[in-house]
Design brief:
This protein is mainly alpha-helical. The protein has ten helices and no strands. Helix 4 packs antiparallel against helix 5 and helix 5 runs antiparallel to helix 10. The longest helix is centred in the first third of the chain and has 26 residues.
Length: 198
Protein backbone atom coordinates (compact mmCIF):
# COMPACT_ATOMS: atom_id res chain seq x y z
CA UNK A 1 0.00 0.00 0.00
CA UNK A 2 2.78 2.46 0.91
CA UNK A 3 4.48 1.82 -2.42
CA UNK A 4 1.30 2.69 -4.34
CA UNK A 5 0.97 5.91 -2.34
CA UNK A 6 4.58 6.79 -3.08
CA UNK A 7 4.08 6.15 -6.80
CA UNK A 8 0.91 8.26 -6.79
CA UNK A 9 2.75 11.04 -4.96
CA UNK A 10 5.56 11.00 -7.53
CA UNK A 11 3.01 11.06 -10.36
CA UNK A 12 1.22 14.03 -8.76
CA UNK A 13 4.52 15.87 -8.36
CA UNK A 14 5.44 15.20 -11.98
CA UNK A 15 2.07 16.46 -13.21
CA UNK A 16 2.32 19.59 -11.07
CA UNK A 17 5.80 20.28 -12.45
CA UNK A 18 4.60 19.79 -16.04
CA UNK A 19 1.63 22.06 -15.39
CA UNK A 20 3.84 24.76 -13.91
CA UNK A 21 6.31 24.59 -16.81
CA UNK A 22 3.47 25.03 -19.28
CA UNK A 23 1.95 27.95 -17.38
CA UNK A 24 5.31 29.64 -16.71
CA UNK A 25 6.01 29.46 -20.45
CA UNK A 26 2.64 31.01 -21.31
CA UNK A 27 2.17 33.54 -18.53
CA UNK A 28 5.59 34.01 -16.95
CA UNK A 29 6.75 33.13 -13.45
CA UNK A 30 5.28 36.10 -11.59
CA UNK A 31 1.84 35.94 -13.23
CA UNK A 32 1.39 32.22 -12.55
CA UNK A 33 -0.13 31.36 -9.18
CA UNK A 34 -0.05 28.14 -7.19
CA UNK A 35 -3.84 27.97 -7.55
CA UNK A 36 -3.54 28.15 -11.34
CA UNK A 37 -0.86 25.43 -11.35
CA UNK A 38 -2.93 23.04 -9.26
CA UNK A 39 -6.16 23.76 -11.14
CA UNK A 40 -4.43 23.24 -14.49
CA UNK A 41 -3.02 19.92 -13.26
CA UNK A 42 -6.37 18.86 -11.76
CA UNK A 43 -5.34 18.85 -8.10
CA UNK A 44 -6.20 20.72 -4.92
CA UNK A 45 -3.78 23.34 -3.58
CA UNK A 46 -2.82 21.03 -0.71
CA UNK A 47 -1.19 18.67 -3.22
CA UNK A 48 1.23 21.41 -4.17
CA UNK A 49 2.27 22.11 -0.59
CA UNK A 50 2.94 18.43 0.09
CA UNK A 51 5.86 18.74 -2.34
CA UNK A 52 7.06 22.36 -2.09
CA UNK A 53 6.83 25.12 0.47
CA UNK A 54 6.54 27.79 -2.22
CA UNK A 55 6.40 28.49 -5.95
CA UNK A 56 10.04 29.63 -5.66
CA UNK A 57 11.14 26.21 -4.38
CA UNK A 58 9.19 24.50 -7.16
CA UNK A 59 10.95 26.67 -9.73
CA UNK A 60 14.39 25.89 -8.28
CA UNK A 61 13.61 22.17 -8.54
CA UNK A 62 12.56 22.60 -12.18
CA UNK A 63 15.79 24.51 -12.91
CA UNK A 64 17.86 21.80 -11.25
CA UNK A 65 16.09 19.07 -13.25
CA UNK A 66 16.42 20.91 -16.59
CA UNK A 67 20.09 21.73 -16.06
CA UNK A 68 20.86 18.16 -14.99
CA UNK A 69 19.66 16.94 -18.39
CA UNK A 70 21.77 19.51 -20.22
CA UNK A 71 24.79 18.72 -18.02
CA UNK A 72 24.63 14.98 -18.68
CA UNK A 73 24.98 15.64 -22.39
CA UNK A 74 27.76 18.18 -21.78
CA UNK A 75 29.72 16.05 -19.30
CA UNK A 76 29.88 13.04 -21.62
CA UNK A 77 31.61 15.24 -24.19
CA UNK A 78 33.86 17.03 -21.66
CA UNK A 79 35.38 13.71 -20.58
CA UNK A 80 36.84 13.37 -24.09
CA UNK A 81 38.04 16.99 -24.50
CA UNK A 82 41.74 17.56 -25.15
CA UNK A 83 42.08 21.36 -25.38
CA UNK A 84 40.76 24.62 -23.95
CA UNK A 85 39.15 25.45 -27.28
CA UNK A 86 37.31 22.13 -27.33
CA UNK A 87 36.11 22.59 -23.74
CA UNK A 88 34.90 26.11 -24.50
CA UNK A 89 32.96 24.91 -27.54
CA UNK A 90 31.32 22.15 -25.50
CA UNK A 91 30.35 24.65 -22.80
CA UNK A 92 28.89 27.04 -25.36
CA UNK A 93 26.97 24.18 -27.01
CA UNK A 94 25.48 23.58 -23.56
CA UNK A 95 24.61 27.28 -23.15
CA UNK A 96 23.07 27.46 -26.63
CA UNK A 97 20.76 24.57 -25.76
CA UNK A 98 19.43 26.62 -22.86
CA UNK A 99 18.83 29.69 -25.05
CA UNK A 100 17.09 27.71 -27.81
CA UNK A 101 14.12 27.21 -25.53
CA UNK A 102 13.09 30.89 -25.69
CA UNK A 103 10.20 30.55 -23.24
CA UNK A 104 12.39 28.84 -20.70
CA UNK A 105 15.22 31.38 -21.08
CA UNK A 106 12.77 34.25 -20.54
CA UNK A 107 11.14 32.63 -17.51
CA UNK A 108 14.57 31.91 -15.99
CA UNK A 109 15.58 35.54 -16.51
CA UNK A 110 12.33 36.70 -14.89
CA UNK A 111 12.96 34.38 -11.94
CA UNK A 112 16.58 35.57 -11.58
CA UNK A 113 15.37 39.16 -11.28
CA UNK A 114 12.75 38.07 -8.72
CA UNK A 115 15.40 36.11 -6.78
CA UNK A 116 17.77 39.09 -6.72
CA UNK A 117 15.32 40.87 -4.40
CA UNK A 118 15.17 38.07 -1.82
CA UNK A 119 18.45 37.32 0.01
CA UNK A 120 17.70 33.62 0.72
CA UNK A 121 16.48 33.00 -2.81
CA UNK A 122 19.40 34.92 -4.31
CA UNK A 123 21.75 32.72 -2.29
CA UNK A 124 19.95 29.57 -3.47
CA UNK A 125 20.08 30.64 -7.12
CA UNK A 126 23.81 31.32 -6.94
CA UNK A 127 24.47 27.66 -6.10
CA UNK A 128 26.08 25.69 -8.90
CA UNK A 129 23.19 23.27 -9.47
CA UNK A 130 21.03 26.20 -10.60
CA UNK A 131 23.39 27.99 -12.98
CA UNK A 132 26.78 27.84 -14.66
CA UNK A 133 28.63 29.74 -11.96
CA UNK A 134 32.16 31.02 -12.37
CA UNK A 135 33.34 28.33 -9.94
CA UNK A 136 31.82 25.51 -11.99
CA UNK A 137 33.13 27.09 -15.18
CA UNK A 138 36.61 27.38 -13.63
CA UNK A 139 36.57 23.71 -12.68
CA UNK A 140 35.65 22.76 -16.26
CA UNK A 141 38.50 24.73 -17.87
CA UNK A 142 41.19 24.58 -15.16
CA UNK A 143 43.13 21.59 -16.56
CA UNK A 144 43.41 23.28 -19.96
CA UNK A 145 44.51 26.77 -18.88
CA UNK A 146 48.23 27.18 -19.68
CA UNK A 147 48.78 30.61 -18.17
CA UNK A 148 48.52 32.01 -14.66
CA UNK A 149 45.26 33.73 -15.62
CA UNK A 150 42.67 32.67 -13.02
CA UNK A 151 40.18 30.14 -14.41
CA UNK A 152 37.54 31.80 -12.19
CA UNK A 153 37.94 35.00 -14.25
CA UNK A 154 37.47 33.04 -17.48
CA UNK A 155 34.32 31.60 -15.90
CA UNK A 156 33.11 34.99 -14.66
CA UNK A 157 33.55 36.64 -18.07
CA UNK A 158 31.73 33.81 -19.82
CA UNK A 159 28.90 33.89 -17.29
CA UNK A 160 28.59 37.66 -17.69
CA UNK A 161 28.56 37.40 -21.48
CA UNK A 162 25.97 34.62 -21.45
CA UNK A 163 23.67 36.24 -18.91
CA UNK A 164 24.04 39.60 -20.66
CA UNK A 165 23.08 37.94 -23.92
CA UNK A 166 19.99 36.47 -22.27
CA UNK A 167 18.89 40.00 -21.34
CA UNK A 168 19.58 41.28 -24.88
CA UNK A 169 17.76 38.31 -26.34
CA UNK A 170 14.73 38.81 -24.08
CA UNK A 171 14.58 42.47 -25.15
CA UNK A 172 14.91 41.35 -28.78
CA UNK A 173 17.42 44.07 -29.60
CA UNK A 174 18.85 42.09 -32.52
CA UNK A 175 22.21 43.81 -32.11
CA UNK A 176 24.17 40.68 -31.31
CA UNK A 177 23.31 37.04 -31.82
CA UNK A 178 24.40 33.89 -30.02
CA UNK A 179 27.16 33.25 -32.54
CA UNK A 180 28.67 36.71 -31.87
CA UNK A 181 28.66 36.14 -28.12
CA UNK A 182 29.99 32.60 -28.41
CA UNK A 183 32.86 33.56 -30.73
CA UNK A 184 33.91 36.50 -28.56
CA UNK A 185 33.66 34.53 -25.33
CA UNK A 186 35.79 31.70 -26.72
CA UNK A 187 38.29 34.14 -28.19
CA UNK A 188 38.62 35.92 -24.84
CA UNK A 189 39.10 32.64 -22.98
CA UNK A 190 41.75 31.43 -25.43
CA UNK A 191 43.65 34.72 -25.43
CA UNK A 192 43.82 34.70 -21.63
CA UNK A 193 44.19 30.98 -21.03
CA UNK A 194 46.70 29.86 -23.65
CA UNK A 195 50.39 30.68 -23.85
CA UNK A 196 51.28 32.90 -26.78
CA UNK A 197 53.38 31.29 -29.49
CA UNK A 198 56.86 32.78 -29.48
Amino acid sequence: MARKQQEKSLQTKKELMESSCELFGKKGFMETTVAQITKHAGYAKGSFYRHWESKDKLFLEIVEEKLAGYRNFRDDRLDKATSLEEVMNIIWDFLENIVRDQNWANVFLEFAIHASRTPELREDLSLSQYRLSETVFADLVRDFVETDYPPEKIGAFNTILFEGFMVQNALQTGIVNMRDVRENAISLALSNGLKKAE
